[in-house]
TrEMBL record:
Major localization class: membrane
Pfam families, alphabetized: Voltage_CLC
Xref: CDD domains: Voltage_gated_ClC
Name of the protein this chain belongs to: Chloride channel protein
The organism's taxonomic lineage, starting at the top: Bacteria, Bacillati, Actinomycetota, Actinomycetes, Mycobacteriales
InterPro entries: Cl-channel_core, ClC, ClC-type_chloride_channel
Transmembrane segments: 27-49, 84-102, 188-208, 255-275, 295-319, 331-353, 359-378, 390-417, 429-448
GO MF annotation list: chloride channel activity
Organism encoding this protein: Mycolicibacterium sarraceniae
Length: 481
């Protein structure tokens, strides 16, 4: 493989040792190192977000959102105690976050995962440590103040940034650097969601729309497993949403419903991606600088939350409530029906306007309420073959909606199964995910725009546009068969 021209002494004896190591030894060392960083980074961001949310939304705003099972499982506030404070707090959090990003690390703007994916394809040495730190703080402020975003983006950027740092310090080859950054993305997301197997598969699939990087899969097992061990040892190993639908037995009569979930989820995933990037494009054309636009977006989210508080922050607690019949029936029907659209709008205003946070988590919430809405309507109409509770529909909706929009159906399906402890739902959900993906893959839409089509097109791009300080050849970058 071609090496960067910084010389064989880069990284000292350890750099030379890694570069000369055979495949197994190299990726055991690098995989464990990236995994430890991913696990610790996930812990640090989780705690930063938790404390920020308790202070900003809880103490100042008087509002405590419900929590997912692994986060404590609290039902949250019965209503908005100080409704006038919510728009101000979301606005203030978005404003401070935007100032930090604009002044210290402009590349930390947005959801962050696209930047990491782009680094895989263009220059795996390019992620700055400063951007990682700014992303951590700015995302905690955005989401902790009520902005609609996911916690996976910052954790993915932390571990992807460490993979990029290793590539620079030890002068790893371009090919090894791409794998290292991919492992960081997958292990960071897998750790924060408590889904190590899904994280490993995600590392191999998230960088392409219609392909799979098998070189990242086996090292991904080491990296993602290590990250999960570190994260779980500190914050616990419980599935994020507990063991949902643990007694479910697959019923072939429900296959029609899984097909309906797949079609509805594809439509919502398509809308999510189009509306989000439409907001990004519109924001770029509007007058104003990169500080005021995210702040205005935060203010609009705060105002929308006065009518639909379920859009605030991550929304995982509302997914938890929707997994039980009693919980879902406690939410007004109109909120259940409108929440997928409202969450798309809120996430687009929070993150698409230039705020900082992930888009994976909101996609999970959107898909969950697609399934919840379908179950609620079917149950209300007394239609046949409908499960006794909404959990099965909620799980299938999560898998199908974001799995299709992210062009990572297998990874997201595994992740949601781990997050809910519900592998029994997988046989039926495969129908929903397959239909949703087949619908989306025929369109030019993806929630991650930095994805390349496949390994062939990515290799041709690298040969035509080599990254700075990386001398790549067609032979080096040709995809393995």
């Amino acid at each position: 493989m071609a090496q960067a021209p910084t010389g064989s002494r880069a990284g000292g004896w350890l750099g030379e040792f890694l570069r000369q190591s055979p495949y197994i030894r190299k990726w055991l060392i690098l995989g464990v190192a990236i995994g430890v960083t991913a696990g610790l980074g996930a812990v640090i961001f989780y705690l930063a977000l938790d404390y920020t949310g308790q202070f900003l939304l809880g103490y100042l705003g008087g509002y405590h959102p419900p929590q997912a099972y692994a986060d404590g499982g609290g039902t949250g506030s019965a209503g908005l105690v100080r409704p006038w404070a919510i728009p101000l707090i979301v606005f203030g959090g978005a404003l401070v976050s935007a100032v930090l990003v604009a002044k210290l690390a402009p590349e930390a703007e947005g959801h962050g995962t696209d930047n990491a994916i782009d680094a895989v394809h263009t220059n795996p040495r390019s992620i700055r440590v400063r951007a990682v730190l700014v992303k951590l703080v700015s995302s905690a402020l955005t989401i902790g103040s009520g902005g609609s975003g996911g916690r996976e983006g910052p954790t993915a950027q932390i571990s992807a940034g460490f993979g990029s740092l290793l590539t620079r310090v030890f002068d790893l080859s371009d090919a090894d650097g791409r794998v290292a950054v991919s492992l960081g993305i997958g292990s960071g997301i897998g750790a924060i969601f408590g889904a190590p197997l899904g994280g490993a598969v995600l590392a191999a699939s998230i960088v392409y729309r219609e392909d799979f990087d098998y070189k990242a899969l086996i090292p991904g097992f080491v990296t993602s497993g290590t990250a999960y061990a570190i994260y779980g040892s500190i914050l616990g190993f419980e599935p994020m949403f507990g063991f949902v639908a643990h007694d479910y037995v697959f019923d072939p009569a429900q296959l029609g419903w899984f097909a309906v979930i797949g079609i509805a989820s594809a439509a919502m995933g398509y809308l999510y991606a189009r509306f989000f990037y439409g907001t990004v494009a519109l924001t770029g054309r509007l007058p104003g600088n990169k500080i005021i636009k995210p702040a205005i977006g935060g203010l609009l989210v705060g105002l929308l939350a006065l009518a639909i508080p379920q859009i605030l922050s991550s929304g995982y607690g509302w997914v938890q409530i929707a997994t039980t019949k009693e919980g879902l029936l406690s939410i007004p029907l109109w909120i259940v029906l409108v929440l997928p659209i409202a969450k798309i709008v809120a996430t687009s205003l929070s993150i698409g306007s230039g705020g900082s946070g992930g888009i994976f988590g909101p996609g999970i919430v959107i898909g969950a309420f697609v399934g919840a809405a379908l179950w609620r309507l079917a149950d209300l109409a007394g239609l046949p073959a409908v499960p006794a509770g909404p959990a099965v529909f909620v799980i299938a909706g999560m898998m199908a909606c974001f799995g299709s929009a992210a062009h990572a159906p297998l990874a997201v399906m595994l992740m949601v199964a781990e997050m809910t402890g519900s592998f029994s739902v997988v046989p039926g959900a495969m129908v929903a995910v397959g239909i949703a993906y087949l619908i989306i893959v025929g369109t030019p839409v993806s929630i991650y725009q930095a994805q390349r089509l496949n390994r062939e097109t990515a290799a041709a791009e690298r040969v035509a546009n080599p990254a700075p300080e990386i001398i790549a050849t067609a032979e080096d970058d040709a995809p393995d068969r």
